[in-house]
Amino acid sequence: MTREQLYVSHAPGDLELVRELFSTVENFPIGVHIAAEEADSGRARTRLAGRIANSDLVVAVLTERSATDRWINQEIGYARAKGIPVLPLSDRDVRHGGYIDDVDGVTIDRSDLPATVFELLCQLRRELSPLGALSVPNWYVRFPCTVSDCDRPVTLEIEHEQSKLWKLHRRGRRLSADCEGCGSRYYFDPGTIGFVGRGEPDSTGGSEAGSNSRSSEGRR
């Protein structure tokens, strides 16, 4: 099955912020296309219409920089004309109007970006079916084991609702997944699903998320 596609429209000057917000999103089973990276790969921004047309969702990152960027408004308008939903991801003091005036979005909290990533994941789970509904914990992250001479894939199966994940984050807990090949254990932040570290298997914490995913006390 073809993965659902996500296009991120943003001002070029916000690329570093966008990368920080979407670094863990790119690990999920969806295609993430960041405008400036697509343009840097040899495509002119004028030729990214195909990316937008083939997307299931467009995220518009709205900051002070975007107010003077002509591409964002054009890409929002193009997406809406194609019937593609647009999710505003905006700074607290930036108002989104026009085509997305009546759309509820996500507010960027620059003092707490993990909380912003969590809210972004909540919205993506509502919009993109591979991630599952908020009450249906059937999403995952899969990656190759990084231990030398071990080529087995590791799967973090996330079997918690969003509210439970945030509670684990606030309590300093971690999700973990074990490599079936070498037994190494990988730890993740429940709020952002960001990678925290790798260690040897231990007995801390009980299994709360299935055979390949556990929650345990935080460690670095």
UniProtKB/TrEMBL annotation:
<feature type="domain" description="TIR">
    <location>
        <begin position="7"/>
        <end position="90"/>
    </location>
</feature>
<dbReference type="GO" id="GO:0007165">
    <property type="term" value="P:signal transduction"/>
</dbReference>
<feature type="region of interest" description="Disordered">
    <location>
        <begin position="197"/>
        <end position="220"/>
    </location>
</feature>
<feature type="compositionally biased region" description="Polar residues">
    <location>
        <begin position="204"/>
        <end position="220"/>
    </location>
</feature>
<dbReference type="InterPro" id="IPR035897">
    <property type="entry name" value="Toll_tir_struct_dom_sf"/>
</dbReference>
<dbReference type="InterPro" id="IPR000157">
    <property type="entry name" value="TIR_dom"/>
</dbReference>
<dbReference type="Pfam" id="PF13676">
    <property type="entry name" value="TIR_2"/>
</dbReference>
<protein>
    <recommendedName>
        <fullName>TIR domain-containing protein</fullName>
    </recommendedName>
</protein>
